[in-house]
Specification:
347 residues; alpha/beta; Rossmann fold; Alpha-Beta Plaits; six-stranded mixed β-sheet; elongated; disordered N terminus; disordered C terminus; binds adenosine-5'-triphosphate; binds magnesium ion; ATP-binding; ABC_transporter-like_ATP-bd; AAA+_ATPase; ATP hydrolysis activity; transport
């Protein structure tokens, strides 16, 4: 293969998923609650796209709107370039999704469960062994569902979404409740699906969990877009070198550091994450230490950080976290271009 050869997933003109200005509010007893606020989402075709944000940031609501389960207040959405929900019937067979846990019969084998599911959705029975193999359960199809580990159960759910051979898979927090081994299995399964040419849109509130498998990501906070694009590009831009300092009063330390020109953001409890305040200027940890000491703040620990998405997220939402009760900051501009792109195979 030459370097000019087409990428494995040829770039198609349209996106697998897009939303523009998507908005959803829920009525509650305390009034209206904004779940999704003007969200623009761009999921390129092919690869794994991480849809990331903390609890309550609007991921499930967005996914439910895409699947026609919840009606948006305003904004537009497309699947494969077709406006939805208007044209959902035309594209629904090209999409497989896990939003809620599917119900399987505990006493039936995995194979029998999938056969029943296939019959229910009009998928050919011959697909059952194929999808079991695709999620790595080829050898275990004859086992009863109740004997499966949580990771295997989740892979069986994924197998169920593959019965109609969809191009796009949408998984809402598929690793919830799994142990590290189960999470690894699901990651491998998603990677395999993408490498076979499908598009996987996967949500998670654990940013770093998806960082390892995603080609591109969208990061949201409070229903708004915070960053989107290629994982490596976001890490390179947002995840600049940083030091984590442990101090008695992180808020006071952050204030001092900001005043002398550093860019502090909240770290784990009791710590502040500090970056260089000027683009292109390397961070000098000795200067961080000196600035704090000059103001009578003595640090108990200083650790250099390797960039990760969690850190990018924290820096993007720093204003919200630091100023409790402060008015919400305007959403920062996306870190990376919105054009669909795909990195080479990550694993
Ligand atoms: N049916 C509902 N009625 C009222 N409020 C809702 C409803 N569903 C979601 N919300 C609210 O909308 C906001 C977004 O919720 P959503 O479930 O979409 O977030 P999420 O990113 O999926 O969170 P998580 O990571 O916890 O799954 C939250 O404030 C939530 O409380
Ligand atoms: Mg959710």
């Amino acid at each position: 293969m030459t370097t000019s050869a087409a990428p494995r997933h040829a770039r198609a003109p349209e996106l697998a998923v897009s939303t523009t200005g998507l908005r959803k509010t829920y009525r509650t007893r305390k009034g209206r609650r904004v779940a999704v606020e003007g969200l623009d989402l761009h999921v390129p075709r092919g690869g794994v796209h991480g849809f990331l944000g903390p609890n309550g940031s609007g991921k499930t609501t967005t996914i439910r709107m895409l699947l026609g389960l919840v009606r948006p207040d305003s904004g537009s959405m497309t699947l494969f370039g077709k406006p939805v929900p208007a044209q959902l019937p035309a594209v629904v067979d090209r999409v497989g999704a896990i939003v809620e846990q599917p119900k399987f019969f505990p006493a039936f084998t995995a194979r029998r469960n999938l056969e029943l599911l296939a019959a229910g959705i009009g998928a050919p029975k011959q697909r059952v062994p194929e999808v079991l193999a695709e999620v790595g359960l080829g050898e275990r199809g004859g086992d009863r569902f109740r004997s499966y580990s949580l990771g295997m159960k989740q892979r069986l759910a994924i197998a169920g979404t593959l019965l109609k051979d969809p191009e796009l898979l949408i998984f809402d927090e598929p690793t919830n409740g799994l142990d590290p081994a189960g999470i690894h299995e699901i990651r491998q399964t998603m990677r395999g699906l993408a490498d076979a040419g499908r598009t996987v849109l996967v949500s998670s509130h654990i940013l770093n969990e998806v960082q390892q498998v995603a080609d591109t990501v969208t990061i949201i906070g409070r229903g708004r877009l915070l960053a989107e694009g290629d994982v490596d590009a976001i890490l390179a831009r947002g995840g600049t070198e940083a030091v984590r300092v442990r101090v008695p009063d992180p808020a006071a330390a952050a204030e001092v550091l900001a005043r002398v020109g550093f860019a502090p953001s909240p770290g784990d409890p009791g710590t502040v994450l500090v970056r260089s305040g000027a683009p292109g200027v390397p961070l000098d940890s000795a200067q961080v230490n000196r600035a704090l000491a000059d103001h009578g703040i003595y640090l108990a620990e200083l650790v250099w950080q390797r960039p990760d998405l969690e850190e990018v997220f924290l820096s993007l939402t720093a204003e919200e976290h630091l100023g409790a009760g402060a008015p919400r900051a305007a959403p920062p501009a996306p870190l990376a271009p919105t054009a669909p792109r795909r990195s080479g195979g990550r694993s």
